[in-house]
Amino acid sequence: MDSSFIEKNVLLLRKLRMLNIEINNTLSSDLSGIRQLYFMKKEKLREEKEGIILKGENVKKAIEAENRKIYEFNNLIKTNDSISEDDLEVLKLKIMLSEKKISEYEKDLIEYDKDIEGINSSILRLSNLFNVDDSDKFAENNENAVVVDLYKSVNYIKEMLNSGVLCKYNQIVENFEKNMYKYPVAAIVNGFCENCNIAVPVQNEIDVLKLKEYIMCEICGCFLVDVIKS
Ligand SMILES: [Zn+2]
Known about the structure:
Layout: H1 3-26, H2 29-79, H3 85-129, H4 135-142, H5 145-160, H6 163-179, E1 185-189, E2 192-193, H7 202-210, E3 215-216, E4 223-228
Parallel strand pairs: 1-4
Antiparallel strand pairs: 1-2, 3-4
Helix pairs in contact: 1-5, 2-3, 4-5
């Protein structure tokens, strides 16, 4: 790949790093607290949703099993000419029982769907509260004009990034929500990754300064774009 092209993108990433640091410094500790809470809450909702989906799958399997039973009972009735009146009664009862179970399972499935819908809208509400791509909503919720402007600058720079790099950046941000890391783009500060605080190989420092390739932290996966010695 064209090295000046990479250089341009790394320099844009450096700007993003500065902006992200500024946003973090500007957000009051309260707001950072709320933000962390939001990440945790969203994660919990996602887990809850997965649990319900799993329950739904199990119920669907149970419905299949009951349907199989009904099929077999019906087969017994059809193929066995010498079936006694009592046995026939028992089989019919069993079929009714399976049908009753199925209708209850189906009610469960409807409930699960409603639960999932509820969780989805809660996740959406939480996302909107801290949606960095929607500055207006962020302002409504936070009334912090400085931060809104900073986010606008972030979006402006993101638009200039190469789409592959942007895709990677967004992916990192998404993963960081789960891991609670702060910065998708970091510097190597005195030999340590600014984001995860773990030592970075010296070769990475040399490569970062060359601006000839994209360097990622091997531990936390963030972009490493600058070297700072203090
Ligand atoms: Zn790191």
